[in-house]
Structure of SsuA/THI5-like domain-containing protein:
Amino acid sequence: MRKMTIFTLFAFLFLLLLSACSSSEATKINLAEVTRSLFYAPQYVALEQGYFKEEGLEVELQTTWGGDTTMTALLSGGADIALVGSETSIYVYAQDSKDYAINFAQLTQTDGTFLVAKDPDSNFSWENVVGSNFLGQRIGGMPQMVGEYVLKQHGIDPHADLELTQNIDFANIPGAFASGDYEYVQLFEPTASVLEQAGQGHIVASFGEESGTVPYTVFMAKQSFLDDNPETITKFTRAIYKAQQWVTENSAEEIAKVIEPYFEDTDLEILASSIERYKNQGSFATDPILDEAEWNNLKGIMDEAGELPADVPYEDLVNTTFAEDVISN
C-alpha cells in the first residue's frame, strides 16, 4: 500500500511537471520588418531587453527588404506580423483583399528621413533645392510621398522645379549620391550621419519635422490572425509598449548600447547621435495607439502625391483595442 502511495505521488509530480513545462512553452511569432533601420529602435529594445520573452513570446525576426515583399510575406503566411509603412495596408485594401492587413500598434510617428546636401550650407532654405539635381526615394513609398509633400508645402514642384531621380534601389542610394553629381538626397539615419562623418554630405533639414505626425511605421497582421490570436497580439503589443516607455525614459547613449548588435557596422557614437536626433524630433511613438488624426494626415500626404487608391475609413484598417487595453492595464 505504501509503495502504491509513493508511486501515485511520483506520478502526480511528473504530471505536474509536464503541465508546467507545457504552460510555459513560448508562442512563436514570425515578424517581418520592411528594412533594418535605426528608426525602429524600440523594436530592437523589445527583443534585447527580453520584453517579448516576459510575455511568453518567441519572436523570430526577418528583414524582408521592401514594402511589396513584406506584404507578400504577411499575406501569404510567411510572417504573422509585419512592421511596415501603414500606406501598404491601404494598397492591399484597394485590391479588394478578402483578409485585410490591420494596423494594430504604431512604432514611429514621423517621417525618418533627412535632407542631405553635397556641400555645406549653414544658411539653408528650401528654395535652395530649386533647379538642383535631387536624388529621391522610390515612387509609392512613404519617404518619396513625404519628400514631395514637404517640397510642395514650400511651393516647390518636385517634377518641374528640379531634376528628380527616383529609379535607384533603396540600398544603392547612398553610394549613388556619394559618387554621382547629385546635389541633394533624402536619407534615413544613421546613413545620413555616416556620410556627414565621411565628408560626403551635410544634413541640412528634416522631413520629419516638416511633415508632422503620421503613422509612418506600424505593426500589422491579417484580420484573421487578429481574430484567432487576440491574446498573442495583446502580449506582443504590451512588449512593444514596454520598449517604447524604456526608450522614452533612457538616453540615446543607453539605447545605442542596447541595440548595437543590430548595427555592428556602425560606430556607437554615430548610433547615439542618430537616436538623439530621432528622439528630439519625436519620431519614436511613445505608445502604440494610431489615432485618427494621424491616419488622415497619412491619407492627405498620399493624396497629394497622387498615390491614394481609395479613401479608406480609419475604422476599416486600424484596430486600437489591443493598444488601449495594454495602456489601461
Notes: The chain has two domains: 27-110+214-328, 113-211.
